[in-house]
Amino acid sequence: MFSFLAQVNTTAALTFFLFVGVSLCITYWASRRTKTRSDFYSAGGQITGFQNGLAISGDYMSAASFLGISGLVFSSGFDGLLYSIGFLVGWPIILLLIAEPLRNLGRFNFSDAASFRFEQTPIRILAALGSLATVCLYLIAQMVGAGKLIEVLFHLPYETAVIIVGILMIAYVTFGGMLATTWVQLIKAILLLGGATVVAFLVLAHFNFNLTNLFQTATEKHVNGAKIMGPGTLVKDPISAISLGLALMFGTAGLPHILMRFFTVKDAKAANRSVVYATGFIGYFYILTFIIGFGAIAFLSGNPTYTDEKGALIGGTNMAAIQLSQAVGGDFLLGFISAVAFATILAVVSGLALAGASAISHDLYARVWKKGDVSESQEVRVSKIATVILGVVAIFLGISFEQQNVAFMVGLAFAIAASANFPIILLSIYWRGMTTRGAVIGGSMGLSTAIILMILGKTVWVNVLGYEHAIFPYEYPALFSMTAAFVGIWLFSVTDRSARANIDRAAFDAQYIRAQTGVGAEKATAH
Amino acid sequence: MTKDHCETIQAIAALPEYQQLLSKKRAVVFPLTVLMLVAYYAFILLVAYNPSLLSVQLSDGVTSLGILLGLGLIGLTFTITAFFVWYANAHLENIVEDIQKKVGTHV
Description:
Oligomer: heterodimer
Distance between the termini of chain B: 20 Å
Order of helices and strands of chain B: HHHH
Number of strands of chain A: 0
Structural class of chain B: mainly alpha
Structural class of chain A: mainly alpha
Largest sheet of chain B: none
Helix content of chain A: over 70%
């Protein structure tokens, strides 16, 4: 059945082992240079704007977006572009409203900035919970994706694949910290952008670099014909459209592993520059996946080498980009792209694990439990232990969730990021009236509403639990959960007459000045 | 916060440069944010309420208006980020440096 993948592709195996070898060397190099807590969490602030932009885009160009979006374009055409755009438009928002204040107020993760003027314990607990929820869901999606991919491409059993990913992830983070994960992410980004460019280039070359020709052939070959040029069935009604749009746009601004990267640069100016570079690379990447998706329609549809008797793509729509690489570039390109897709997952899970470890160690252990009374090296040691635990949990969850629909996991991760993390960050930076109590209650409302509505929605209530009709009629809860969060924060802040509330409000002016001018901000460490 | 830090913050609050920084920043942040939100949600609402408009074919006979607008939106997104950082470098950075020099925290 998988005739074109009958033997393990030599190029794939070689490229993969080369990548793992290089990444472990980087980890060793990074471990020699990671001496302090600041090194471990934020690479000592030594990362440049350009490097950070590339690393951030690497975090973003996960296997889910490379394979998933080109797969979506392959099956639905225009709808794939909708998702791409949604993932991209959060970046100007981050740049204009969040990046600079975040870098100026925080030290290592977004919870530093969000809890700046408030009572530390409750806010840090909430931020840590929101971070861990987002990270875990994202991790499950990546682990399952990795397992499936390796299973198909390298003929390894699913469990073995998941365990390999987990072990490598633990190695990168515990030995090399943020410095290792940044460089692994960066290299992967270059490989992925390079490989995808080659595939897209070969597709376009076949059509004489004329997009119209490509679209023409695609509409002729696709089962839905010219309908793929316009909106399909991805968003069925206005409420879903807006809800999905909100989750994608503002979820980006609440992803803990992305926000953590803003602390790896020298100052707010470099943080801003990172965003421009990242937006450029990501935007370019989404144009590539668009071309690749259409290329897949043109080259693979109805082609007996790649489709089965019923006309469906072998391996599922997620394999569209992989199969296209063989169609246009032979076994060599197939091998390279497969190895890069896997490397992509390795890099992303490492960033996620570090974000999760920092939530556990920096927020929950050091600030909440020990009230700041711990040495830096103790904190780092706890981070490493947390990474190992997270790695084991990720392996376990990856194996348990093998059969589940992972696109829904990523969707839920974004919904939580948009409903729990983002409202707290935004309002704490810009609204004087916000108080600790408002933040805690409102943030919790956002978090719980997102989770509850997801459970009551079609994906869980009907598909997993087997009930007849979903209680919550929409697939995306963001519109409701974000509203709950903002209303909750507002309501419980304005009605807050406690002494703590007065401190919270009074501290706003000084916080705002620091956020806008960088005076008092955490500096890069000298090496 | 240390007493020194409090005094620094109070000193900044009194500087005219600080007010200038805030007003220049708002002058560009507010319109750009609105532009991004309006462009994106207009597109989303078109998808939701008038999908057939987006399926209209352009002069080459196959490319749709939706694809053109979508790719345009990608271009707009990057342009907004590039413009803001250019603006910040050209007009805001020097004010921030002035402020830092005046309160003695410039490195």
